[in-house]
Every structure is written in C-alpha cells, then in structure tokens.
Amino acid sequence: xxxxxxxxxxxxxxxxxxxxxxxxxxxxxxxxxxxxxxxxxxxxxxxxxxxxxxxxxxxxxxxxxxxxxxxxxxxxxxxxxxxxxxxxxxxxxxxxxxxxxxxxxxxxxxxxxxxxxxxxxxxxxxxxxxxxxxxxxxxxxxxxxxxxxxxxxxxxxxxxxxxxxxxxxxxxxxxxxxxxxxxxxxxxxxxxxxx
Length: 195
Known about the structure:
Blueprint: E1 8-13, E2 30-31, E3 34-35, H1 36-44, E4 50-54, H2 59-62, E5 68-70, H3 78-86, E6 94-99, H4 109-116, E7 123-126, E8 136-139, H5 143-151, H6 157-162, E9 167-170, H7 184-190
Parallel strand pairs: 1-4, 1-6, 4-5, 7-9
Antiparallel strand pairs: 2-3, 6-8
C-alpha cells in the first residue's frame, strides 16, 4: 500500500529513564556532533507530515525544533504509555513510532513498512533475528486497542503489537536502523558506524 507522507505523523519515543546511561536523557546524548534525537528527526522528517516527541522531562530541549512535546499521562507504563499519551494529539490517519535512541533509522523505512501492509492494519520490521515492535506503522485508531491493553494491566510492547496481527517486513538489509544506544560504551562504539 502507498501511504503519502502527509498522511503520517512521526512519533519519537524519548520518555525512558535511561538507567544504563546513568540517568541522563539518552536521546539528547551527542553522536558525531548532533544529538541522537536530532539525527533521528532529520532522517524521519521527510517520511512524515509532522513529528511529535514523547518525553517526560527536558521539554525545552526536545521542543527546540518546534515539534509538540507530550508527556505521559500516567507514569510507569513504559513505551506504550508514551505512545498512548501522544496518539490523541495525532491528526493524520497514520502514525509511525520509533525510539529516540536509534540514530541509524533508515530514510526509506516508513515507505517500506507501508508497502508491506497488504491487508494488515499495522506493520513492523524484523532485523533478521527478531521483530522490532517499537518501529511501528499503524492507523491512529489503534489507540483504542492500546488504551484497552494498558487498562488490562499489561505493558508488553510485543504483546500489544502482536495482538494487532501486524504485517512483518524483512528489513535485515537495514538492520542498523534498529541499533539502540543504551550505554556510554555503545555510544562510543556507534561513532564508528557508517552513516
């Protein structure tokens, strides 16, 4: 299926507690002179109509590009909580979300996921080893299902996404897209990855 960029809102999930990064905001850490979130934003912006950032602190830093910055409405719900808080602010029929610590996001990923949809309502990539459920393309109306899932007490991103029976895109050729930076050591190692 072809979905034009103007029909998709990009959501960058930056609300984690970054325990392995010493409690600092991972997406604001710098790689090659720019922050992780800025790099992701630059790669994502041409693929979508607008970007919304999910963040629970440092709103001024995350808002420097003029994007809406939305905090979780309920604490301790993890990435799904961030997504659930943002979706009511999305005005396009589709959204694509990704984590704010994956600076190698491929510039064609959103379109490839749309092409993989077929009759499914959502699409996720696999890196050749496992499904990458936080890189999700779906209809904004899925917010109802996410809210119900969270209300049941469940928190698993994989469980929630699997319940939507998503199409799965083989994205093993762009596996670096899903490389998360979780520690100072990983940040240092990422400096040598070609971009």
